[in-house]
Specification:
Blueprint: E1 4-6, E2 22-26, E3 31-36, E4 43-47, E5 52-57, E6 61-66, E7 72-77, E8 83-87, E9 92-97, E10 102-107, E11 109-110, E12 113-114, E13 121-123, E14 129-133, H1 136-139, E15 155-159, E16 165-169, E17 175-180, E18 186-191, E19 196-202, E20 208-216, E21 228-230, E22 236-240, E23 243-247, E24 253-258, E25 263-269, E26 275-280, E27 283-288
Antiparallel strand pairs: 1-24, 2-27, 3-4, 4-5, 5-6, 7-8, 8-9, 9-10, 11-12, 13-14, 14-15, 15-16, 17-18, 18-19, 19-20, 21-22, 22-23, 23-24, 25-26, 26-27
Length: 297
C-alpha cells in the first residue's frame, strides 16, 4: 500500500480506495522525462545515466527507442505529436522527425554561446516551445559531460515556431521543471536549489512578467523540486522532498505521494488520463488517481 503524507483531508479524495504504487519497469540508471502518447497509448522515458530512451507498452514492457541519446533528460510532444527532447551531453533541444528515424537539433546556442544542458521542455497550444537550461549536464558526470559553461547564467527560454529563440528568465539558481496553467496564462517554473516554485504571467506574445514565489516545496527528505504537471482540475504537481507534492490552484499543498526511490518526473496517461506514471531513479512506477492530466497534443 502506498504511503501518503496527507496535509489536507481533500488529498484522500484524489485517489481511489486502495490506490498503490505499481513498479512497471526497473533496472535503469537514472530515469526521467516520461511522456504518454494519448493516441498510440505508449509511455516514453529517458535513462540519463545510460544515455537511452525507452518506450513502454502495457503487456509488452519496455524496449529501446534510441541509443545513445546524448544523455537525454526531459521529453514532450510538439503540436504534431513529434517528440521533443532535452539532451544534456549535447547541450541542445532536438525534435524526433519521422517517428524517431531522424533527430534534428532545434535549439543549440543563445547569442553565439552553447546552451548549458537543457533539462525540461513543454510545448503550448500555439506551438511555442519552453525549456529550462540549468548546468547539471556540465557539472555531474552521471548526468552529462564535465565541461565549462559558455553562458554566465542558467536561463529559461521560449522557442517560437519561426525558429527564433528568446531568453525569458535568467534570475534562477538552477531552473528545472516547468508547466503551464490549463489556460496557458501562467507559467510555473521551479528552482531546485532554492526549493520553490515561481509563477509568471504569460502575455499574448509570449513575454513573461511577475516571477514571484508561488509555493515552497517542503518536507522531510533530501530531494528537491524537479518535474511538474497540471491537471484539468487545476492542480499543480511537483516532485520534491519524499515524493510527488500535490498543490491546489492557490498554492496549498494537499499532500505528498511518498516514493521508495528519488522521484524525478511524472506524467498522466492511461485510457482516461488518470494514471500517474512516475520516474524514480532506477524504476518507473504507476499509481491510479482521480485526477485527470492534460494531453500533450
Amino acid at each position: 500500500m502506498t504511503q501518503f503524507d496527507i496535509r489536507d483531508p481533500a488529498f484522500s479524495d484524489l485517489f481511489p480506495d486502495g490506490a498503490g504504487l505499481q513498479e512497471i519497469a526497473t533496472g535503469f540508471g537514472f530515469t526521467e522525462g516520461p511522456i504518454w502518447h494519448p493516441h498510440d497509448k505508449w509511455l516514453m522515458f529517458s535513462d540519463i545515466q545510460e544515455s537511452k530512451q525507452y518506450i513502454w507498452r502495457e503487456g509488452a514492457g519496455h524496449s529501446i527507442f534510441r541509443q545513445p541519446s546524448n544523455q537525454a533528460n526531459g521529453n514532450f510532444f510538439d503540436r504534431d505529436g513529434q517528440v521533443l527532447t532535452c539532451e544534456h551531453a549535447a547541450s541542445q533541444v532536438t525534435i524526433h522527425d519521422h517517428s524517431g528515424k531522424r533527430v534534428r537539433p532545434i535549439a543549440t546556442h543563445y547569442e553565439g554561446r552553447a546552451l548549458n544542458s537543457p533539462n525540461d521542455v513543454i510545448c503550448d497550444s500555439l506551438g511555442r516551445i519552453w525549456f529550462t537550461d540549468p548546468a547539471y549536464g556540465r557539472t555531474r558526470a552521471d548526468l552529462g559531460i564535465i565541461r565549462d559553461q559558455e553562458l554566465a547564467f542558467q536561463g529559461v527560454y521560449r522557442l517560437d515556431p519561426d525558429g527564433s529563440l528568446h531568453l525569458v528568465a535568467r534570475d534562477f539558481d538552477q531552473p528545472n521543471g516547468l508547466c503551464l496553467s490549463q489556460d496557458e496564462t501562467r507559467l510555473f517554473i521551479n528552482d531546485s536549489p532554492r526549493g520553490h516554485i515561481r509563477v509568471f504571467d504569460v502575455a499574448a506574445d509570449g513575454a513573461l512578467s511577475g516571477g514571484e514565489i508561488w509555493a515552497n516545496v517542503v518536507g522531510d527528505g533530501p530531494w528537491v523540486p524537479d518535474g511538474m504537471k497540471t491537471t484539468t482540475q487545476d492542480h499543480i504537481l511537483c516532485n520534491g522532498p519524499s515524493g510527488v507534492h500535490v498543490f491546489t490552484a492557490d498554492a496549498q499543498c494537499l499532500g505528498v505521494i511518498l516514493m521508495p526511490q528519488k522521484s524525478t518526473n511524472f506524467c498522466f496517461g492511461g485510457a482516461d488520463m488518470t494514471s500517474l506514471f512516475i520516474t524514480a531513479s532506477a524504476s518507473v512506477y504507476r499509481i491510479e488517481t482521480r485526477m485527470t492530466g492534460l494531453a500533450m497534443f
